[in-house]
């Protein structure tokens, strides 16, 4: 009898979790084959502002992530404060700039899991709070880059 109950409980859980993790605002769905809106603040070697588009370690990661989603990147440069406020308002999908997990804004916005740890600093990207499918996709991509990122020397 217990096996039958466990079987049906398992089926019920699987049916109920068919769309997990979810994005309440459908961010991953909107970005895939669309546009990834990324705010950045200059912080070499992570992000370097150029006349065309930013370069640097994180800018390259974002470009490659967007390519995997078949998305184009819309870059927006601003101060860290303004970018975080805009991320809170959901005007951006992602913020980069050599951010670390100890950032004071962690109480108001979300950060990815650290994608690199160097010299006791854990580097993260600022992400939309609650858009779990989008964040999970980003974190999977960053995890796959760990070996390449280990070779990076930080300032």
Helix percent reads 25-40%
Secondary structure: number of strands: 7
Shape by Cα distribution: globular
Spatial order of the strands forming the largest sheet: 2-1-3-7-4
Biggest β-sheet: count, sense, barrel?
5 strands, mixed
Order of helices and strands: HHEHEHEEEEEHH
Distance between the termini: 62 Å
Strand content: 15-25%
Mean pLDDT value: 88
Low-confidence stretches: 11-17
Number of helices: 6
Q: Structural class of the secondary structure composition?
A: alpha/beta
CA radius of gyration: 18 Å
How is this fold's topology laid out?
Layout: H1 2-16, H2 27-31, E1 35-40, H3 57-68, E2 72-77, H4 80-88, E3 94-96, E4 110-111, E5 116-118, E6 121-123, E7 126-127, H5 132-144, H6 146-150
Parallel strand pairs: 1-2, 1-3
Antiparallel strand pairs: 3-7, 4-7, 5-6
Describe the fold and architecture:
The chain is α/β, with parallel strands linked by helices. 38% of the residues lie in helices and 16% in strands. Strand 1, helix 3 (57-68) and strand 2 (72-77) form a beta-alpha-beta unit.
């Amino acid at each position: 009898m217990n096996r039958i109950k466990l079987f049906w409980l398992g089926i019920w859980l699987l049916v109920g979790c068919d769309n997990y993790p979810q994005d309440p605002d459908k961010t991953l769905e909107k970005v895939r084959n669309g546009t990834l809106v990324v705010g950045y603040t200059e912080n070499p070697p992570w992000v370097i502002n150029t006349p065309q588009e930013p370069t640097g370690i994180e800018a390259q990661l974002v470009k490659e992530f967007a390519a995997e989603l078949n998305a184009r990147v819309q870059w927006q440069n601003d101060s860290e404060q303004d970018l975080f406020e805009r991320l809170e308002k959901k005007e951006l999908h992602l913020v980069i700039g050599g951010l670390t997990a100890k950032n004071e804004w962690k109480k108001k916005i979300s950060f990815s899991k650290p994608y690199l740890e160097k010299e006791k600093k854990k580097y993260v990207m600022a992400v939309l709070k609650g858009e779990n499918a989008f964040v999970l996709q980003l974190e999977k991509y960053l995890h796959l880059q760990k070996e390449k990122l280990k070779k990076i020397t930080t300032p």
